[in-house]
Amino acid sequence: MLLEARAVSKAFDGFLAVRGVNLEVAAGEIVGIIGPNGAGKSTLFNCLAGEAVPTAGRVRFDGADVTAAPPEAHARLGMARTFQIPATFTDVTILDNVMVGAFLRHPGVAEAREAASRVLDFAGLAGVAHLRAATLGTPGRKRLEIARALATEPRLLLLDEALAGLTPSEIRQAIELVREIHRRGVTLVIVEHVMEVILALAQRIIVLNHGEVIASGAPDAVVNQPEVVEAYLGRSLTRRRP
Amino acid sequence: MRWRWTLLAAAALLAPLILQGSFYHRVLALVVLAAISASAWNILGGYAGQISFGHAMFFGAGAYMPAFVYAHWHAAPALGLPLGVAVSLAIAVAIGVPTLRLQGHYFSMTTIAVAELIRILVSNWPPLGAAVGLQGPATARTVWDLTFRGSVTYYYIFLVALAALLGVTAWMERSRMGYYLRAIRAGERAARSLGVPARRYKLYALMLSAAFTAVAGSLYVVMIGFIDPDSGLAVLISVEMVMVTALGGAGTLFGPLLGAAILIPLEQTANVLFGGSGTGFTFIFYGGIIILLSLFEPGGLLAIWRDRVVPALRRRPTPPVRHAA
Amino acid sequence: MIVAVQVLVGGLLLGAVYALFSSGLTLIWGMMNVVNFAHGDFVMAGMYLAFLAVVWLHAGPAVFTIAAAALMFLFGTAVYYALIRRVMRGPMLAQLLSTFGLALLLRYSAFWIFSANFVTLPTTALSGTVRVGPIFIGVAQLVAGGVALLLTAGMHRLLTGTALGSQILAVAEDRQAAMLMGIRPDRMQALAWGLAAAAAGVAGALIATFYYISPTVGESLAIIAFVVVAFGGFGSVPGAMVSGLLIGLIEATSAFYIGPVYKDVVVYALFVAILWVRPQGLMGERV
């Protein structure tokens, strides 16, 4: 088991955003997390990534207890994440952005630059390496976000709505990229609203509602379960507009 | 790029010969001194993005120790320099460890509170001269007393110190620390998720900054020969460091130099022309400039030059930037 | 024993004034994550406004306090619209520089206009002392403390008990949601700045009756406000009320037992200590 969350709960001032969530991700899997707005996906995500400390429960990564470990420690152990709204370092070049990630495994400047260039090649951003990251539009920034996280050479990559707000062709390209990342041996946990993406990528999904897991299993099966449909009651299952 | 620095170095070396006379020489020395303080502040405020409004405490630590070792043990003031750096580092760690893990505002508030705290303590502590202050050697006993006539010798000593500081800063800029600090400044949350030990690196920046600011303080006291709470620990010293860096361009190597070259001569002239009230008016002016900078161009003159003037002159899109503004 | 009680009462009364102006600082902080480095100078401005009202208009305490409140309210909203609104959206450097620059501007303008010497208000209706039980209290201090307490409680009531107050708190809690509910965040934030500045101005006017008025007063008052807010919890007005009184007590006791020069040192050291031990106001989340 690469990632394990046991009975994870997170409360904010008495409001329980996440309640007793159990999650197991084996190495090599692609697991999706879906749920309506306010279901607690982001909070759970932050608990897994080390940005928030669960008020109850444990998170284990590769056997190590990371429940209270800070984000830096998660990255060092091999868990990387992206942010829903790309947290691009705008005043710095695209190459420099990725180098920050590369430094984790390559302390020397020249090595880090080498490694970062390779990641940029892989992600299809080699051509714009020396431009300021601020010049990128949203799709570019999302791609950079993923590239930067990849540069830390993670074993597990957490993607937070990495494909929201993209056009259909951009989505297809992004799906291809994610598949390629998976082929290279990275385990993936994907939070997504865009059903097309989940159905295309996830081998297994869990559905959150009101902070609890209400269903889990293979995508096609889960999506048609009555509880899940009810959770999304009143919302169409098409791509969410940003 | 190299030739610009060579040109600058040449101009700096020749300046006292071009601008002759004790007034000019004194101003030149003060410009370089201000450039050292500001460049030191810049490591923390410009590159790491942690804004200190109390850097006078580090300056004061560096300024008081040489005077202290002379006053109490008749030792050469130069020996006080490492002591000043040590005291400075101790203060840096004491305030950095608790506050750098919090949002930036807390650190800034703490620098104001602790700087004031230290000023009050020193003003009332007789071994440090209390409100009266401490004197350095009146005449040179050995060369290590660093008591020279006129300002020119000091000017060149200061230039060496500035060159060393700029060298360290340039090295830092290109090293992993530079990349990490820029990332922390651009988005600490994201930086940490990439494995950047943000707290640690901010502390390193603070310590480096504090150490060099102390050096500036030591250089000040050997030139002036006297230190008291007003000249060593006052809020105005902190303000000037911020002002000089912000005006020139925080986060750039050249910014503090530009700021010092512009502001110090203005300050000194205002002093001469208007006396004490000139100083008061200077700070009204500084307050106004800081507000304008915050509203329109926090990156200072260099950012205005790079982002607005140069593109207009060359009529091409904004060139790629390596330094965060 | 009597002396101890006297010291404590004096401390509490001054503490009430601290609570008053600190509640403004904490409101701004809670609402928009902005630290007003000029807050101490807002109090200083209130002091000088009171002084001018007395010198030019021969105004009595009630009049000059109201004048200070009104003028500072306008000033606070002006500062919001002209400066804060813009820099809030910018980089941290700009935010921090903005109110710091404002502090310098206010402080040195005061220097320039009034010179570095301190002034005091001429005798007013509040001069003299009154005897309460076994102790003597200056009338001015008593009135200042009492009025400050009332106003701080009033501010709390305004925020929690009125429609307008709920709107302000709504914006503080969730700007987007408030907008969706038809509340105009800009207006509420400007109002908050106005209230905060007015509170500071009134505090200044109140203590002008017994404090030394000088341009540098703002430096130490700003730090006291930071300490009060740190103790009480950033964003909590009731917290500021309680900790204001507490800080007033600590300061008075330190002044009495250690010496007036060191009272500031104790309070400032407390600030660092609270950040070391428990930076209240943070919801326990990783920062």
Can you tag this structure with a few keywords?
heterotrimer; B: 325 residues; mainly alpha; ABC transporter involved in vitamin B12 uptake, BtuC; two-stranded antiparallel sheet; 2 strands; globular; C: 287 residues; two-stranded antiparallel ribbon; 11 helices; disordered C terminus
Assembly type:
heterotrimer
CATH uppermost class of chain A: Alpha Beta
Strand order of the largest sheet of chain A: 6-7-8-3-9-10
> How many distinct beta strands of chain B?
2
Ranges of chain B with pLDDT <50 over ≥5 residues?
none
How would the blueprint of this fold be written?
The complex is a heterotrimer of chains A (242), B (325) and C (287).
Chain A: E1 3-12, E2 15-25, E3 30-34, H1 41-49, E4 56-61, E5 64-65, H2 71-77, E6 79-81, H3 94-102, H4 109-123, H5 138-150, E7 156-160, H6 168-183, E8 187-191, H7 195-201, E9 204-209, E10 212-217, H8 219-223, H9 226-231
Parallel strand pairs in A: 3-8, 3-9, 6-7, 7-8
Antiparallel strand pairs in A: 1-2, 1-4, 4-5, 9-10
Helix pairs in contact in A: 3-4, 3-5, 4-5
Chain B: H1 2-18, H2 22-47, H3 56-73, H4 80-99, H5 104-123, E1 134-135, H6 152-174, H7 176-186, H8 188-193, H9 198-224, E2 226-227, H10 229-232, H11 235-248, H12 255-274, H13 276-296, H14 300-314
Antiparallel strand pairs in B: 1-2
Helix pairs in contact in B: 2-6, 2-9, 2-11, 2-12, 3-4, 3-9, 4-9, 6-7, 6-9, 7-9, 11-12, 11-13, 12-13
Chain C: H1 2-32, H2 39-57, H3 61-87, H4 92-114, E1 129-132, E2 135-138, H5 139-161, H6 163-173, H7 175-180, H8 185-208, H9 217-232, H10 237-257, H11 263-277
Helix pairs in contact in C: 1-5, 1-8, 1-9, 1-10, 2-3, 2-4, 2-8, 2-9, 3-8, 5-6, 5-8, 6-8, 9-10, 9-11, 10-11
Can you tell me about this structure?
The complex is a heterotrimer of chains A (242), B (325) and C (287). Chain A is an alpha/beta fold. Chain A is built from nine helices and ten strands. A six-stranded mixed beta sheet of chain A has the order 6-7-8-3-9-10, with helices on both faces. In chain A, helix 3 packs across helix 4, helix 3 runs parallel beside helix 5 and helix 4 crosses helix 5. Chain A is globular, with a radius of gyration of 18 Å. Chain A starts with a strand and ends in an 11-residue tail after the last helix. The mean pLDDT of chain A is 88. By secondary structure, chain B is an all-alpha fold. In chain B, helix 2 runs antiparallel to helix 9 and helix 3 runs antiparallel to helix 4. Chain B is built from 14 helices and two strands; from the N terminus they run H-H-H-H-H-E-H-H-H-H-E-H-H-H-H-H. Chain B has a single domain, classed as Orthogonal Bundle (ABC transporter involved in vitamin B12 uptake, BtuC), CATH 1.10.3470. Chain C has 287 residues and is mostly helical. Chain C has one domain: ABC transporter involved in vitamin B12 uptake, BtuC, CATH 1.10.3470. A two-stranded antiparallel sheet of chain C has the order 1-2. In chain C, strand 1 and strand 2 form a beta hairpin. In chain C, helix 10 packs across helix 11. The longest helix of chain C has 31 residues. In chain C, 53% of the residues are buried. At the B-C interface, helix 4, helix 5, helix 11 and helix 13 of B face helix 3, helix 4, helix 9 and helix 11 of C.
